[in-house]
Amino acid sequence: MAELGWRHHALIQTLLSRGPLKEQEFHTVFAGVTGKNPASHLQLFNECLLKINKVLDFVQLELRACMNQYDGNIYYGVVNNVSDEQSKIGTKFSVPQIAFYKAVIEAIIQDERNQGCITSIEALNVRLESQVEDGHALQEKQSRVPTAFRSFSISQKEKTLNDLVREQWLCSTSDGKIGLGVRSFLDLRSWFRDNDVLSCDVCNEAAIKAEQCSKDGCPIRMHSYCLKKKFYSRKAGRVCPGCRTQWDCSEYVVELEEPTEMPPQSNQVTEGPMTRNRRSSKSESVAAGDCNPAPKKRLKTCKAEIADDELLKLIPAHPAGMRSRRSSRN
C-alpha cells in the first residue's frame, strides 16, 4: 500500500473537517499545499487523488467529486462506501431522524413535477411509517412501527430538517423549497442506482432535478446544464434522443451560436507582399496631399491587386525580385 505524505493528509483533513468544498475552493487548498495549480497541472492533480483513494479504499472511504444539480457547481468530499450497522454508529442522528431523512429523499425523488424539491410543509408531513419494511399486512405493519416513529413530532421534524440543511444533507433552494444537499449527491450515488432512479441521458448521473421529455411515457431526462452542452450549437438537433420529439430548451439555452456568415468578398482582398507595399505607398501619397483619388481608377487598381495576389500564390517570389522583373520588362 502506497504511503501518503503530509500534503495528502492535509487534503483529506481539510475535507473531513470542513465538509464538501466547491471545486475552486478545493483547487485553492491543493495549490496551497503543493504549490501547483490544478488547472495547469491536471495530471499531477489526478495522480494525487488516485493515490489518496488507493489508501482510503482500505478503510472503505473515497474522495469523490459530484455535480450539484441545483447550481451546476462541482464539489469534492470524502464519503463512506459501505452502509452497515458499524458505520451507523458514527452518525450523530437518531434512528427516527434518519428515517425522516430517507422519507424526505423519497418524497423529493417521487415528486411528479420532477423539479428535485418539495415545500417545507410537504417535508414536515412525510410519514415515517413508510420506512418500515414492507411484506406484511397493513395491520401487522402498523404494529411493527417503532414507538419513536409514532412520537416523532412536527417540532422534532422541523429541528431535524434545519440540522440536515446545515449539515448539507439537504438544501434550501432559492425559492425556499427543500432539495437534496451536496452530501446526498456524494454519498447516495449507488443508492440512486440500486433504487432505479432515472438517470440523465447525457451524464448518466441520477436525474433528481432535470427536464423530462414532453411526450407521455418517454423516460428521457436531462439536467439543465447537460441540456446547454447538448443543444448549445444550432447544428445539433433539439429533439429527444429517445423518441425524437422536439425538445423545448429555450428556457435553458439563452445564448446560441448564430450560423457563421462569410464576410463579403468584394472589399476584402487577401494581402500579399505586393499589396501591402502598394497600400503603404498609397498612405504616403495621401499624407503628402493626394486626397482625391478617382473612384474608377481605384476600382481598376483593386482588380489589378487581386490578379497580383492570385499570381503570388503560384510564384513564391520576394517583393524586391518582383520589382526588378518589372523594371527589366519596362
UniProtKB/TrEMBL annotation:
Subcellular location: Nucleus
Ranges where the record places region Disordered: 260-296
Any one GO cellular component localisation term in the record: Smc5-Smc6 complex
Species whose genome carries this gene: Apostasia shenzhenica
Predominant location category: nucleus
Family: Belongs to the NSE1 family.
Domain Non-structural maintenance of chromosomes element 1 RING C4HC3-type: 200-243
An example Gene Ontology molecular-function term: ubiquitin protein ligase activity
Residues in coiled coil: none
Subunit structure as annotated in this protein's UniProt entry: Component of the Smc5-Smc6 complex.
InterPro entries documented for this protein: Nse1, Nse1_RING_C4HC3-type, WH-like_DNA-bd_sf, Znf_RING/FYVE/PHD
Alphabetized UniProt keyword annotations: DNA damage, DNA recombination, DNA repair, Metal-binding, Nucleus, Transferase, Ubl conjugation pathway, Zinc, Zinc-finger
UniProt GO BP: double-strand break repair via homologous recombination
Entry EC number(s): 2.3.2.27
Keyword Nucleotide-binding in annotation: no
Catalysed transformations (reactions): S-ubiquitinyl-[E2 ubiquitin-conjugating enzyme]-L-cysteine + [acceptor protein]-L-lysine = [E2 ubiquitin-conjugating enzyme]-L-cysteine + N(6)-ubiquitinyl-[acceptor protein]-L-lysine
Protein name (Swiss-Prot/TrEMBL): Non-structural maintenance of chromosomes element 1 homolog
